[in-house]
Design brief:
- By secondary structure, the protein is mostly helical.
- The protein is built from eleven helices and no strands.
- The chain has one domain.
- 73% of the residues lie in helices and 0% in strands.
- The protein is globular and about 55 Å long.
- The relative contact order is 0.10.
């Protein structure tokens, strides 16, 4: 049995397998772009001896932070693929609800990669066009991961409840993703801070929710959410299998 055949068994549909392979190709392409960039910088990978060394090099000079951000973007994708199979096996609303909560918690990490374009500037000896394409490639891959994972959850909700419920979940999740991108980029919170610093995070969220008219970031949340929604609707309009 070939490796591809073994991987194919993990997916319930050919559509999911094709999407996975394309996402892997995009991810590999991104890693290659980072590798070429490090070569331009004469960066010695052998100098990384520990995870602490790697963490210390996640600055905008090496762009290695993009790999970490892309890893976080893969999490909601994998969780979304596990929702339907786990429900079919267990029929447990508690387990399914837990998976959906984890998925929603990490979902903003996917469109968050779009905001990494903020790091674009001339950095000799790297050509400006090269960094532009590198950031766009990572951003596009992250957006695809977010859209596809949202599609998987949308299908699950629509099949288990109704089309209306599915679209309501899409709208809610898109809005929350816009909020998540904002608090990640500008307030510098991470997905796991809801467990490690829940009170501080809730204070910031409370301020945003009770003072939307004076909150300076409300415009960015709306724009992030609107772009994510329009991207999803574009993807959905071309999907080969519509919900019944």
């Amino acid at each position: 049995m070939s490796l591809l055949t073994k991987i194919r068994i993990l997916f319930s549909e050919d559509r999911q397998f094709r999407s996975f392979m394309l996402l892997c190709i995009f991810t590999l392409f991104n890693f290659c772009l980072i590798g070429v960039r490090l070569h331009y910088l004469d960066f010695d990978l052998a100098s990384i001896q520990s995870s602490e060394d790697l963490f210390s090099l996640r600055g905008t000079t090496t762009f290695l932070f993009l790999i970490w951000n892309l890893f976080l973007a893969w999490i909601p994708y994998w969780v979304s693929l596990a929702v339907a199979p786990s429900y079919e096996r267990s029929k447990s609303p508690l387990l399914t609800g837990g998976l959906l909560f984890v998925w929603l918690l990490f979902l903003p990490n996917a469109p968050y990669l779009l905001t990494d374009l903020i790091h674009l500037r001339m950095r000799a000896p790297i050509p400006f066009w090269y960094d532009l394409m590198l950031l766009i490639s990572f951003a596009w891959t992250g957006l695809l991961l977010g859209i596809i994972s949202l599609y998987e959850v949308h299908r699950f909700i629509a099949w288990q409840w109704s089309k209306l419920a599915g679209w309501m979940i899409v709208i809610i999740c898109v809005i929350l993703s816009g909020l998540g991108v904002y608090i990640g980029r500008f307030l510098r919170w991470n997905s796991w801070d809801i467990l490690t610093h829940p009170l501080e995070l809730m204070e910031d969220l409370y301020y945003i929710l009770v003072t939307p008219q004076t909150f300076a970031g409300s415009g960015s949340i709306v724009i992030f959410a609107a772009f994510f929604l329009l991207s999803y609707l574009t993807f959905f309009s071309f999907s080969e299998k519509k919900f019944k």
